[in-house]
Amino acid sequence: MRGSDLRYGSLFSYVDLESRVRGDPPLRSIREIANAALTALSDDFAALYPPRLGRPSVAPERLLRAMLLQAFYGIRSERQLMERMEFDLLFRWFVGLGVDDAAWDHSSFTTNRDRLLEGEIAAKFLAAVLAQPRVKRLLSSDHFSVDGTLIEAWASMKSFRRKDGTDQDGDGPGRNAERSFHGETRSNETHESTTDPQARLYRKGDGQPARLCYMGHALMENRHGLAVGGGVTQATGKAEREAALALVDAGPGRSRRRITLGADKAHDVTPFVEDLRERRVTPHIAINGHLTKTGKRRKTAIDSRTTRHAGYAVSQRCRKRIEEVFGWLKSAAGMAKTRFRGQPRVDAAFTLGLAAYNLIRLPKLLAAT
C-alpha cells in the first residue's frame, strides 16, 4: 500500500537520542575519550567558575564538546554551529543537550567560550586526552618530530598601517576603501595591523607573497603520528627553532631519557643543534645542503655521528607525517585562516585543533591494538 505524504501533528512526542544515534559512528568512541578527559579537568573548571549568586552558566563540558564538533565538521561561525545544533540530533547527543532543550544564543556561546580559551583549558584538555592509560600506551616516549606552519591572520592587508599614523591615504567612502601601497616600504618595525596588532607580516620563501599571519607549531610522536604538544607564536625567522626548544623542554619524558627529534631543513642551524645536544636530544634533522650565491655548498650542522645510524633514516620518513596534522587542521578544522584575533586566542584554538585531530584518529588506533 502506498504511504501518505500528509504530515500530521501529534500532541505528545518522546524521542530517545540514544536510540536515534547508531551504535557504530566514530563519535561514540570519541565522546567516550573526550568525556574521560573532561572529568579529569573538573577542578580546573571549578576554578574558572567560582561559586556565587546568579544564574548558572552553560556547562563548560558542553561548551568544549561543541567546540570539538566545530573542529570536526569545519563549521566556520558560531551562528552556523547554533543553527546546526537546533536540528541535528547527532550534535545534540554529542554535546549533551536533550531534544526539548533550546540551543544557546550564539553570543552567549561566544562569551562563555572566550572564558575557556583564556583559562588555558585547550592545552590542559590535550594533555588530559594523552594521559589516559589506554592512549598513553600508543605514544612513543623516545622519538618525536617537530615542525611549524603559517596561519593567516584575521586581518586585511589594508589594516597594515604605519605605527606613527602618518599614512597619507584617506579613509574614503564605505567600509572597504581603496588603499595604495605603491612605492611604500612596509615592515614589522614601522607598521602594524590596526585590526590585529599581534599579527606579523611574513613571507614563507622567495617568490611567495607576504601575508599577515601567525606561526603554529606542533610536536608529534613518531609511533602513531599523534600530536603531543603545540602552540602559536608570532611569525619570525627564528620562531620555528625557538618554539621547538620550548616544546622539547615541556615534552613528555624529558627528565628520564635521551630522545630523538626529527625536523626539516629549516632547523639545520648550528646553534639550534647545539642547544638540542645540551638537552640530551639527538637531532635527526634533514640536511640543508643548498648552494650559496657564490656557488659553494652550505655547511650542515648534522655530521656522520648522527646520519650513520639507521634510526636517522627512519626519523626522516616519520617526520613528514606531521604535515598530515597541519593538513587536517587547515582543510577540515578551518585553521588555514584563523577566526580569532590576538595570539592567546589563536593559540588556544590551534591547540584545541590538535586535540581534535588526535580524537578522530584514536578510535581506529585503539581498535587496532
Provide the gyration radius in Å: 24 Å
Structural class call reads alpha/beta
Order of helices and strands: HHHHHHHHHEEEEEEHEHEHHHH
Can you tell me the residue ranges where pLDDT is under 50 for at least 5 consecutive residues?
none
How would you state the average pLDDT, rounded? 87
Strand content: 5-15%
Task: Explain what this protein looks like in three dimensions.
Belongs to the transposase 11 family. This is IS5 family transposase. Keywords: DNA recombination, DNA-binding, Transposition. Involved in the transposition of the insertion sequence IS5. The chain has about 375 residues and is an alpha/beta fold. Among the domains are: about 100 residues, no CATH class; about 150 residues, Transposase Inhibitor Protein From Tn5, Chain A, domain 1, CATH 3.90.350. The chain contains 15 helices and eight strands. Helix 2 packs across helix 8 and helix 4 packs across helix 7. It is globular.
Using brief descriptors, characterize the structure shown:
Transpos_IS5, 369 residues, globular, DNA recombination, transposition, Transposase Inhibitor Protein From Tn5, Chain A, domain 1, Transposase_11, 8 strands, two-stranded antiparallel ribbon, alpha/beta, six-stranded mixed β-sheet
